[in-house]
Amino acid sequence: MNAFTLGGATTILDGGLATELEARGHDLSDSLWSARLLADSPEEIVAAHAAFFRAGAEIATTASYQASFEGFAAHGIERNDAAKLMRRSVELARLAGDVEPGRHRWVAASIGPYGAVLADGSEYRGRYGRTKQELRDFHRPRLEVLAESGPDVFALETVPDVDEAEALVEALDGLDVPAWLSYTVDGDRTRAGQPLAEAFAVADSAGIIAVGVNCSAPEDVLPAIEIARATTEKPVVVYPNSGEGWDAQQRTWTGRAHLSPDLARSWRAAGARVIGGCCRVGPEDISAVTEALIDPAG
C-alpha cells in the first residue's frame, strides 16, 4: 500500500456521506447516524462511497464519525461486535475504491468529536464538561480499533475545542497512522470560542500531517486558510457544509446552499491542498468542484 502523502496538486475529498445515504432513502435520525448502516446496510455505504469516487473524489471518509463503543453499547451492540463494525467502515470504503477503479483511492478513517456520540449538537459547542484525560480515554480505544483496519489517514474532524484537539493528538501516540486535524469554526474562532491561531498550533505535533476546517459555513473557510498558513507549515484541508444551517432542536437543515466551484478555486488559490465538502454536499457538488480544480489533461 502506498503511504498517504499530500503532494503539490490539489487532492479532492468526498462530500457528506450521510447526505448521500439520505438521498438514497435511508432514515439516519437515530443517534448512530450513518454508523447504523454498518450493520443494517453495508452495501449502501459502499454505493455511497462509490458515487463520490465517480464524482472525482480521491479520498473517502468512512462511516465511523459517530461510531464509538459507548454509542454502540447504547443500542445493545457488544464490544467485540462494535469493534468489527468500526473496522468494517474502513473495509467498505476500500471496497468502493475497487468498485470504481482508476487513480489510487485513499481511505480516511473518520473520528468525530465526543459531542457526536451525544447526538445533541454538542459538536457545535464544545466545552462538554469532560477533562482532557477523559476525552483521551474516550477516543483512544476506537482509534486503536480503526488503526488495525489499515486506513491511509485519520480524519480527526468537526473538532469544536482546543482541549479536545489536544486530547486527540495525545491519543494518536504510537498508532503509526498519519492524521489531519479539522475544526468546526464560527468566524475566526473554534465553536468553543478559542482563536483559530491557537487551535491550529496544535497541529505542530509530528502525527498531524494537515490542519483545517470542516462542517462550517463556506464563508468562514478563506479566513481560516489564511490563519492556518500563518500559523503552521502543514498543508491545509477544507471541507465545509453546503451553507445551510443545522437546527439541532428540530433536527433539520435551514437556509440555502451556496458552496460553489468559484469558492473552491479561491480556497486553492489561498493555499488549501485538500478540498471537499461536508454536510449537505453530494456527489454532484463534488463533481462540480472536481471540474473546477482538476485539469482533465493533467
UniProtKB/TrEMBL annotation:
GO terms for molecular function: S-adenosylmethionine-homocysteine S-methyltransferase activity; zinc ion binding. Pfam families: S-methyl_trans. Zn(2+) binds at C215, C278, C279. Coiled coil: none annotated. Its cofactor is Zn(2+). Residues 1-293 form the Hcy-binding domain. Binds 1 zinc ion per subunit. InterPro entries: BHMT-like (IPR017226), HCY_dom (IPR003726), HCY_dom_sf (IPR036589), Hcy_S-methyltransferase (IPR051486). The keyword Zinc applies. It comes from the Bacteria. GO terms for biological process: methionine biosynthetic process; methylation; S-methylmethionine cycle. This is S-methylmethionine:homocysteine methyltransferase. It comes from Saccharopolyspora hirsuta. The lineage of its organism: Bacteria, Bacillati, Actinomycetota, Actinomycetes, Pseudonocardiales. The gene is mmuM.
